[in-house]
Amino acid sequence: MEHWLQLMGESLGTLLWAGLVFTIPLTLITFVLGLLLGLLTAVIRLFGPAPLVAVARFYVWVIRGTPLLVQLFVIFYGLPSMGILLDAFPAAVIGFTLSVGAYTSEIIRAVISSVPKGQWEAAYSIGMNWRQAMSRTILPQAARVAVPPLSNTFISLVKDTSLAAAITVPEMFQAAQRIVATTYEPLILYVEAALIYLVMSSFLSALQGRLERRFARYGGTLEEARA
User: What is the DSSP string of 202-224?
Assistant: First the structure.
């Protein structure tokens, strides 16, 4: 036990550094880009011309229907056969962005569709055009409803970044793998990595709860108001 505790203490700094330098930036970058891609995809599917709607549906269908790990392998190991060479981190950013974009597009599409039609009519009645109605009336209402599922997507993304180790991104899980290769102590190192992910997820879940309660003050659901 003393040996394990010593090993955990010695490796903690390395794991946290890998999380700070790679895991957290990868999560933030891909979530922001994926959210923008998801918003664009949702708007196209709801209001776009038929050809673009078909492209958007195909994109969502492919990404949601195939494993994220396979997508990362196609981007990092498969594209070089076509002459497209990507470093590990940019490849991970592309893969996770496409994944987040597909899933968040369904969330955004659903919450925009949930806004009553009367809100559009009210916006048009005071002289707003489509863009103004969307940005000033529809999206603010939809954002409140979208907070819980988007927060869950973000928390899941933090954990999913561990898959980037498979394409050699030196994030936290791969840092643990490298230490295991020299110490031959897989159990304690992987448990330590799991505990760090658990702490991060718990912290984000607590922030999510506070954010939901804050939105509930401005007209959330009864469940949110009681939280």
Answer: HHHHHHHHHHHHHHHTTT--HHH
